[in-house]
Design brief:
single chain, alpha/beta, 8-stranded mixed sheet, two-stranded antiparallel sheet, about 35% helix, about 20% strand, globular
C-alpha cells in the first residue's frame, strides 16, 4: 500500500494527513476524503479503513482535524478545540486538495465520516455538490439530544452558566478552560463520559497514538450543543447516502440516527451493526462497516 504524507492550507490552518494511492493504480481515480470524530486522530484506526478503500482501487485522503494530531490550529486559536463548522469547512478544503491531485478524478469525490465527523460528512454532502457519495458510521445527529446525555456531573445536566463564564474569561485574555475527554469520576465534567469511550481512548492512546492528549476545551462541549446535522439529511439527495448504525450505540444514539435516517430521501441505505458506538473500529464490526462503505463508494463513484 503506497501512502504519502501530505499537507494543505485551510484558511490559515495547516492540515496534515496521508494520501493513499489506489491499488491497482487507475489514474485518475475516484477519491474518498476522510477525517476522524470528536477529539480523535487519524492514527486511531483510520489507516485500516483507508487501506480497505485503496485496495479496491479508490484513492484516499485522510487528515487530522485542525488542532489535533499532526494538524495545526489557526493562528491565535487554541489546540484541542472542536468547532463543527470549522471542521465542515476543512472537509471542503480537503476536497479541493483532492481535486487538484494529479491521481484523482475531480468529478468523483466521496466523503466518509465517523461519529462526530459522520455528522460533518452529511452536512458537507448536503451543501457541497462536489460530493458524489457519502458514508457516515455511528453518526452524531443531534447536539441538543447528545448534550443532554453527555454534559452531566453526578447525573445532572450541566447548565449554561459554566460556558458563559468561560467565554467571559477568554474575552478578558485568560486561557481557555479545558476538561478531560474521558474519565471515571462522576463528579468531574468530561467530554465523553461513557464507559466504552474510556475504554476506546485508553486503548487508542496506549496502542495507536501515544501523543493523544486527554484534553479538550470546555467551549468544544458548548459548540456541539447547537449543532444539528440531522436537519441536513433531507437535502443530501440526489447524492447517495449510506448510514452505518450501532444498534446499542449509547453515545451518539443509535435510535436517534435510525430515526433521522427516515428523513433522508433516496438514494440511501442503512446498515446496522451489533454493538455500541465503537463497534465499527475492530473485529467483525470493522469488517462489516469498512466493506459496506467500500462497496457503496465503488457502486457510486466508479460507474
Amino acid at each position: 500500500m503506497v501512502r504519502h504524507n501530505i499537507e494543505f492550507d485551510a484558511e490559515g490552518s495547516l492540515l496534515r494527513g496521508w494520501f493513499y494511492e489506489p491499488q491497482p493504480s487507475a489514474s485518475p481515480a475516484p477519491c474518498v476524503v476522510m477525517a476522524h470524530g470528536w477529539s480523535s486522530t487519524k492514527r486511531m484506526h483510520l489507516d485500516r479503513f483507508a487501506e480497505v478503500f485503496a485496495a479496491a482501487g479508490l484513492a484516499v485522503l485522510v487528515y487530522d482535524n485542525r488542532g489535533w494530531g499532526e494538524s495545526e490550529a489557526a493562528p491565535g486559536k487554541p489546540r484541542h478545540e472542536i468547532d463543527p463548522w470549522e471542521q465542515i469547512r476543512d472537509y471542503q478544503h480537503a476536497i479541493t486538495y483532492a481535486q487538484n491531485h494529479p491521481d484523482v478524478d475531480p468529478d468523483r469525490i466521496g466523503v466518509w465520516g465517523t461519529s462526530f465527523s459522520a455528522g460533518h460528512a452529511f452536512v458537507v454532502a448536503a451543501i457541497d455538490r462536489r460530493v458524489k457519495a457519502v458514508s457516515g458510521q455511528a453518526p452524531f445527529v443531534s447536539g441538543r439530544a447528545t448534550y443532554a446525555n453527555l454534559a452531566r456531573v453526578h447525573n445532572r445536566v450541566v447548565g449554561p452558566e459554566l460556558f458563559a463564564a468561560d467565554r467571559r474569561a477568554r474575552a478578558k485574555g485568560e486561557p481557555p478552560a479545558t476538561v478531560p475527554v474521558v474519565g471515571t469520576d462522576p463528579g468531574q465534567l468530561v467530554g465523553l463520559p461513557t464507559p466504552d469511550s474510556h475504554a476506546f481512548f485508553t486503548h487508542a492512546r496506549e496502542e495507536l497514538d501515544p501523543t493523544w492528549p486527554n484534553e479538550v476545551t470546555l467551549r468544544s462541549i458548548d459548540n456541539f450543543y447547537g449543532y444539528e446535522p440531522a436537519r441536513y439529511l433531507p437535502d443530501i439527495t440526489p447524492t447517495p447516502l449510506l448510514m452505518i448504525v450501532g444498534r446499542e450505540d449509547g453515545l451518539t444514539g443509535g435510535n436517534l440516527a435510525a430515526s433521522a435516517y427516515g428523513t433522508a430521501a433516496e438514494p440511501k441505505k442503512i446498515v446496522f451493526l451489533p454493538g455500541g458506538h465503537f463497534a465499527a473500529y475492530t473485529g467483525d464490526g470493522f469488517t462489516r462497516a469498512s466493506q459496506a462503505s467500500r462497496d457503496w463508494f465503488l457502486e457510486h463513484l466508479t460507474r
